Amino acid sequence: MSSILTNNSAMVALQTLKSINSNLTQTQNEISTGKSVASAKDNSAVWAISKVMEADVNGFKAISESLSLGESTVAVARQASETVSDLLTEIKGKVVSAQEANVDREKVQADIDALRDQITSVVGAAQFNGLNLVQGTESVDILSSLDRASDGTVTASNITLNRQDLSTSAGSYGSGTSLSANATASAAAVVNTANTATLTIATDADVSADAFSLSVAGSTISFAAGDITGDQDAAAAAINNAINALGLSGVSASVSTNVVTISSTRAFEDVDLTAQKNGGATGVTLSAASIGERAENVTFSSTATVNEGDGYQVTVGSTAYTYVAGNNETMEDVARGLKAAVDTAGLADITTAVAQDSNGAWQLKVDNDSSSLAFSVVGAAGGTASGGLFGLGGIDVTTDGGADAALGNIETLIDTAIDSAAAFGSAQGRIETQSEFIGKLTDALKSGIGSLVDADMEAASARLQALQVQQQLGTQALSIANQAPQNVLSLFR
């Protein structure tokens, strides 16, 4: 049936053409924008995912900039630490040369002062964008990542940089919790008297007829049978003379009838003793197997932790010498810091050393070669940390005692600078690795976003040509369908 009111063929052709035009418009949009999902109406789920990922990409770009800034800051600190280490090594060379008695120590000290001032200059200038990692103790966080959980929550991750304080500041003693229980002084005074042990020859011991040997600090005196004539008193006198003839530093002997008293003024060294008669101990008696070191000591707890701001004071005579621990320091650092504090004072006849006892506890040893001085130790939390190169300013090689003390202290300072450079080097390597990872991760996210929303240009090109042909055919079909009512006119001619 033909109708001039309803043209079904034209309606079908029109709907087909509209569909073709819609697809053609979509394809043209893909080609012009380069995206198959350009807005939420194209594919809301994919569009939402892509926008979240694009936000993460922008975040990672900011993180990359943060890492670059952090890497530059750490590089400056590492270079400063290495320079300080080199300068301290030069100072050590000067200190070693000052051990000789025939050098002009005043000129050597002038060179040391110049190098010390240069270290201060390097530490002060080692900043990047106002941040100096070789001064102070506060840690610094560098934004390193954004971590998105499966539930959509985002947390920031940081690389924490610990400052390595290379200043020479003394710090300040705190007034917080008492730490005195962590340090114990061996005596209430440091005295200059010798420590002793006795060798007693029994009154019924026939030393003259027997072989006899005595070892003192690794040196041995021996008498064959018949070398000693007389009674036990004569034997004691001969042994006394033989000990003094050894010429041992800090070791001497005296005799009273049949008793030989062996004395030692060695500050930081025990003197071991052994005695035998005919290969045994019968008839000779030593009061001790060794003579202890003369120095008094402060023994620090081997189990207590050390926190930043923990300060300890050692009093020698009427003066208290202070060291306040910094971040990540140990009791060894405290002991060496107190040694530097005492040495810096340049006390006449006072020498110091740091060592561990048989239980592994660190000790500060103080020896006095003059009149008796009071000796005590206290501790308190809540102070301001001393600088990592504390004691550098007190190096003085113009005296024998100062030159000796400087030799030990400079090693501690060099170790501090080397540890600082190593810590910064490790941190810089980690930042570089993270920065490289962030770059690769950003590229991977961009690639993933592209796979979700980017148009396949080859397919779009082929589809465009096909749709253009379909559009032409659809237009022709609609034109033919619109011609149908014209045919009805022929029925009325």
TrEMBL record:
**Which residues are the signal sequence here?**
none
Location(s), subcellular: Secreted; Bacterial flagellum
Task: List each copy of the Flagellin C-terminal domain by range.
Answer: 408-492
Question: May I have one GO cellular component term?
Answer: extracellular region
Against InterPro entries, the record matches this protein to: Flagellin, Flagellin_C, Flagellin_N
> Which molecular function GO terms apply here?
structural molecule activity
Q: Which residues does the UniProt record annotate as the domain Flagellin N-terminal?
A: 4-137
Q: Which UniProt keywords apply?
A: Bacterial flagellum, Cell projection, Cilium, Flagellum, Secreted
What family does this chain come from, according to its entry? Belongs to the bacterial flagellin family.
Q: What is its biological role? A: Flagellin is the subunit protein which polymerizes to form the filaments of bacterial flagella.
Can you name this protein? Flagellin
Q: Which organism is it from?
A: Actibacterium mucosum KCTC 23349
